[in-house]
Here is the input.
Amino acid sequence: MNLFIQRHRRRSGSGAMPGTITVQPHAQAPCYHMMSFGPQATKGSIENIAFDAIENLPSLPEQHEFMWVNVTGLGDAEALRAVGKHFNLHPLVLEDIANTAQRPKVEEYDNYLFVVLRVPVLQPLTEEDAGEEVLTTRQLALCIGQNFVLTFQEEEEAALAPVRQRLLQQKGKLYQRGPDYLAYALLDAVIDTFFPLLERYVERIEEFEAQVMEIDAHGGIKTIHGLKRELLILRRIIWPQRDMVSQLLRSESAFINESTHLYLRDCYDHSAQLLDMVETCRETTTSLVDILLASQSNKMNEVMKVLTIIATIFIPLSWIAGVYGMNFDPEQSPWNMPELAWEYGYFTALLLMFVIAGGLLWWFWRKGWIGSRE
Amino acid sequence: MNLFIQRHRRRSGSGAMPGTITVQPHAQAPCYHMMSFGPQATKGSIENIAFDAIENLPSLPEQHEFMWVNVTGLGDAEALRAVGKHFNLHPLVLEDIANTAQRPKVEEYDNYLFVVLRVPVLQPLTEEDAGEEVLTTRQLALCIGQNFVLTFQEEEEAALAPVRQRLLQQKGKLYQRGPDYLAYALLDAVIDTFFPLLERYVERIEEFEAQVMEIDAHGGIKTIHGLKRELLILRRIIWPQRDMVSQLLRSESAFINESTHLYLRDCYDHSAQLLDMVETCRETTTSLVDILLASQSNKMNEVMKVLTIIATIFIPLSWIAGVYGMNFDPEQSPWNMPELAWEYGYFTALLLMFVIAGGLLWWFWRKGWIGSRE
Amino acid sequence: MNLFIQRHRRRSGSGAMPGTITVQPHAQAPCYHMMSFGPQATKGSIENIAFDAIENLPSLPEQHEFMWVNVTGLGDAEALRAVGKHFNLHPLVLEDIANTAQRPKVEEYDNYLFVVLRVPVLQPLTEEDAGEEVLTTRQLALCIGQNFVLTFQEEEEAALAPVRQRLLQQKGKLYQRGPDYLAYALLDAVIDTFFPLLERYVERIEEFEAQVMEIDAHGGIKTIHGLKRELLILRRIIWPQRDMVSQLLRSESAFINESTHLYLRDCYDHSAQLLDMVETCRETTTSLVDILLASQSNKMNEVMKVLTIIATIFIPLSWIAGVYGMNFDPEQSPWNMPELAWEYGYFTALLLMFVIAGGLLWWFWRKGWIGSRE
Amino acid sequence: MNLFIQRHRRRSGSGAMPGTITVQPHAQAPCYHMMSFGPQATKGSIENIAFDAIENLPSLPEQHEFMWVNVTGLGDAEALRAVGKHFNLHPLVLEDIANTAQRPKVEEYDNYLFVVLRVPVLQPLTEEDAGEEVLTTRQLALCIGQNFVLTFQEEEEAALAPVRQRLLQQKGKLYQRGPDYLAYALLDAVIDTFFPLLERYVERIEEFEAQVMEIDAHGGIKTIHGLKRELLILRRIIWPQRDMVSQLLRSESAFINESTHLYLRDCYDHSAQLLDMVETCRETTTSLVDILLASQSNKMNEVMKVLTIIATIFIPLSWIAGVYGMNFDPEQSPWNMPELAWEYGYFTALLLMFVIAGGLLWWFWRKGWIGSRE
Amino acid sequence: MNLFIQRHRRRSGSGAMPGTITVQPHAQAPCYHMMSFGPQATKGSIENIAFDAIENLPSLPEQHEFMWVNVTGLGDAEALRAVGKHFNLHPLVLEDIANTAQRPKVEEYDNYLFVVLRVPVLQPLTEEDAGEEVLTTRQLALCIGQNFVLTFQEEEEAALAPVRQRLLQQKGKLYQRGPDYLAYALLDAVIDTFFPLLERYVERIEEFEAQVMEIDAHGGIKTIHGLKRELLILRRIIWPQRDMVSQLLRSESAFINESTHLYLRDCYDHSAQLLDMVETCRETTTSLVDILLASQSNKMNEVMKVLTIIATIFIPLSWIAGVYGMNFDPEQSPWNMPELAWEYGYFTALLLMFVIAGGLLWWFWRKGWIGSRE
Here is the structure.
């Protein structure tokens, strides 16, 4: 379920024209928001204006140089085409925006940078399985132009809300800086959502580690397989995300000011930390499989040993009982089982049995097969 | 069966002259098609003209600058040589076209680019095994010149049909652009055929994952081995295909216009996505082997445990029965098995047995060997 | 517990403004020290002056050109901001100083170099577990300016004490050289703390190796898992630490004099040695798992073999006893168990049993299943 | 047996002077051949002239510009030195020619290129083991000068015969081109000998794959180990051979004409194909080990299961028989085993046994332990 | 024992001044030798002059331009400092010379090149274990100046003796060439000592391979673990040694003449060959573990099978004996065990037993569990 980004995403048919916009099933209808800002923006002048079609995009307020236009919901190909036309986007960019199975990447175009991010989401598996959650990712596309930032979200991402708040409330200098800094802030917010997620994985691994002795091996392997798969998904996103930030850093695009580079370097550091965490998690889970299998094998060995010891002790005893159950006829010959007629024959036989049982127990104990757990 | 591209392909004999054209066994006789196009091409002027030999290649219609010549069936060395002569192809290129075991690659020559692609095909294994299919690949060779595109197919590939349709019906701008864009369209169409194929593998893996608990380990290992092999084949094609696109992107060949680079970058992205999917599939199958083996071991352990428990319980009981089956003679001595003459001796013995059996069962249950599944 | 650097560190909330200083829980209140030095410093003129706030930073004594300002305890955001303002540090730098979960790195700013190191610490696991220790790391941040070195420690690191002593006692030329050389001395001191630590791991591995035959497999796997995890932590620190030194070496920063490069090369060598040791430890532990599992399997096999041999020998004997315990009536027919009436029937039966037991023992011995340990 | 190239090769003693020629044991006495060719060579003028010492090297026929001098048999240090002197070869080159354990490589000298190739040979293991063959490699050294090609063979290689034929019979343009093209032809011929060899390995692996279910695990592991070893040998040759061709391609040596580059690129492609095949073979054999072990484990499990089931069924039956074999005296008490005196007591007991046996069989069948193969 | 180079080496204390000379425990007292040579050196003029302190270093004989000063024994820090002062060596170089745990490396200083090599040594493990040897390495440090070569040995290395002989006896041109060529000769001599060593490992592996079927798995794993560890040590030396030679080759140091480059390339080839051998050994040992474990598992299976078969055959027989040992009273009912009174009842019972035993044997044989070894 959801092993790959691409699953259950509809692609343009094979051999389709490049730039064909293929709307995903269940994609939402678009809704639009616009915020304007700029170095001369006065206090309280920032607003979050919703509008219903790109033709009705409000014009920039005076003294506001830059705008952030956000489109949430990619379910209307026509609307996307209109946005593309308005901002002069390349058809391939529009195709990538609509087909929400892209890997994180950055592409330079003449009048904007196109950036694809992936936002991790924990979704409840089904309505019934209230407790269980499954890891998926959603796509967030950005176009960074000279005086605008365009964002395309599949659904309203909670991760972007704090950035919007900072802009609205004019905290910090975000509202006075350019589109590149806004893009950085969005990128940083997305990367930050990975940390609590990964910490949950770390916790799950550490819990697992603490219990590994008690865990049923088979169920444990399934749990680890699940963990590995989700870590694999994360790695497949975080790795190109890091490369993408590094490419942004090294690019000499006109859309990224020199002063923003420091901040991108910070993003790169965070991405590298994330990758580190994912890799550490992966190596640890791999090592846990060894423990789990050794533990399973150990338990089985213990079972076999106890049971076999019991069997082994009783087998010679049964043999002795069998011997004295033979019907050789003492009347025919004095040599035929004279023990049967001894006064203490029965006790002798029982004694013999206990001696043998005791001897075997002592021998097993000396060999370390019983008593000590090993 | 078809583990490698090269199997069952006939190569030129060792030490043969370079450029020797070695026709593959079962290769088809060639048939030729030509389509012309160009920036000035008027509506409805595009035609798909079949012809029977390269000498009869129709001339370009007026206002059509470019032509796409397609050769399907590589079974005639003489005909290939004629095509090579007509388009001034290097003997090594002709050798590579005829020996359909090449890896994806691009080579620059003075007056054309030579590109080799591989098209994945699922073929029925044999006539009887109607259901089962086996993955093979066929070679598609392209020569991209200043004003022509030459394609050489082993068999008519379904993947190219949509491109031909787009050209014929003059959809999009394909018919107005140059040979490089046509080559891109063909390349894109070939890469797109990998997606549904890989999605079938993803589905097979997810099905397998869902059933892994019920699967017979031995059969499961064979299934995974099969999957791994086919994924290995795909990886061995997709990897050099991606490198080839990357080389095209970086090359400064005169045969690739600047404007086509954007589209090739898109191809590169798709190739990278494919590689990602293949690698994820491979890692997941590897992890499945662990589950499978743990599951097999678990089942065996369960069998052994149940059986051994039964044996262990009855062994002490049999010993008691054996003891009271001994023939010590109570008449010779009052100490010889007086229990035999007790009024409730038999019941005492049976009770003893049930107590022992019950005690063992209780002990096993407390140790967790019975009752809970673990 | 402490699997990752980042665990239990508080990060700025997701979407927080860059440069937000987030104080770690349990972080200490800051205390400040200053030492001044320089090429003209006279004997005995170096002092270690404590002060209580950055505003009270003592001025440089005459003839002293450089100062080393140390802040221990990062528990006061306001104080950190004051230090940042005084030395003109970038907000991102302050954020990284306070959030003590950074990987080792070097960043160039206009008027200083920012270096993050990690110091390994063995902490007692809990108050009770007096003997056991757990590996953690603490962060040490350096800012190297034209005429100052700033250090930020979470707690007073013992590793830095010798450097302070060398400076105070004016041993060597440390007190006459610049901030870059002091930074090198601190870096070298930190790297040197890894050697005894790694040697402890080497000793633990060698001890383990010597005992591997006697060790309980399950406990052994846990020990190795623990070792691997701590080595993984070390590797995740030493690897970027080496890269950081290499970056310092290759940087052409104005803050690192040419003459210090030789010394940094020495640091790089030591880091490479450390990495070598860690990798060798890791490969050796991996190989130890094989021995451990083979040893476990061997022990189990030995148990099973001994026990099964005993069972196997007695089973035919019990059968013979059973045969002669049958109640066929010799009185009804002379063919019914005439052996029972033989004079030496009983001895014959016992003899038969001993012959069979002896024969089996001889056969097992010849097959090498008993006698030799294999 | 022949695990490494270097085994059983005699090297110059440790600390020997560089350039010391150390003749291999069993090396043959040299014999010399010369062929001349060139752009002006007329039809039928090419001859293959044998001669007995380098002093008697025939002079070039008129209009022949280039010569190919071949030395087969490297058993005479003096003769090698003479050749070296005649062609002005560096002592290190002569040492490498005589010590036939070199890896494939290319080295540029002032007046020639020195190239080492390795030719794979399948040799019968011993005289008796007529069927079995073992893979070894022999060294082929080339010196490519401005107007000569020198080849040094350990034994006459069959792989070179077709090239000699093409030259003699003046097929193609080989006889009109320069030494670089001749060297390419020889290189190509050597690389071509790897293809049938690798195809044999592919066949062996596919045969093995088809039979893997029936194969004895232990023998199978040995077979795979053998395959892996030989594939390892091949990889250790093919890898540097590919690098060597790539180095030739990138070198700007005056001894390689621009026009030959196309042909070398073809060689490079072939080498890459070979490496691909070797790697695929290696990955497939690795995956086969898994199947083999799972198959072995499966067979053993089946054995254990059948046997244990039989034992488990009879154990309770034997207990019942034991119970009714007890000697409690019915005469002493009516409660002592009254069943013994029942009219149908015996049949009841037998019936009870069959019911228990049947019940157990049914239970085992329902649990899937008998009946189905799993 | 000796798992790492650094073990049991004393390092300067943590935080010590750079350039602190820390003498190793058990290091010998130094003794000095000097040899002079040069292009104008006449026959017989080379001498090996011992002296007792660097102050007494003999002056160069006339017409001798270069000198080789050798210091054996690094146990005297004062003496090392004196040598350092005389040849103007950097304190860090002296520290590295004394701390004999360096990895192979090359460092360029203004007036010399500093090279560290490691010489492999097989030392008897202890006095008692006469036969067993353990692999260690010793450090050899070289300083190559304009007109001198300085060597520092821990103990007199046998590997250098042939070079000394060649110089003394004026064999070859060694005595006429410069310090760089002498350094090459020493480097070559050290690299050559690895070959016989590695060939011993190859022999041990091949011996092991030949016996792998007979070897006790547990001991075998320990042997392989030992081999792997020693190969790991070799790899950790040979790898940086190769890189060091490559760095020498690529460096444009004034201390290495152009003409010596050819010889260094030869050294590089040898190092690459060594690495190849080590890697092949490592891969082969890894593959041997698989065989060993499969072999162990196979043997155990065989034991279990034989034993279980015996048990399984006798269990039904014992049951039959038990049945006819039941005491149902034939006198009470004609249906109670009438077989007991049959004339051939006993023989029938015995026959039944043999038929069952035979049937089981036949069934086991048909299933392939007995008879064939598998």
Observations:
- The CA atoms of residues 329 and 342 of chain A lie 15 Å apart.
- The mean pLDDT of chain A is 86.
- Residues 301-366 of chain A form a domain with the Methane Monooxygenase Hydroxylase; Chain G, domain 1 fold (CATH 1.20.58.340).
- The interface with chain E takes residues 325 of chain A (CB under 8 Å).
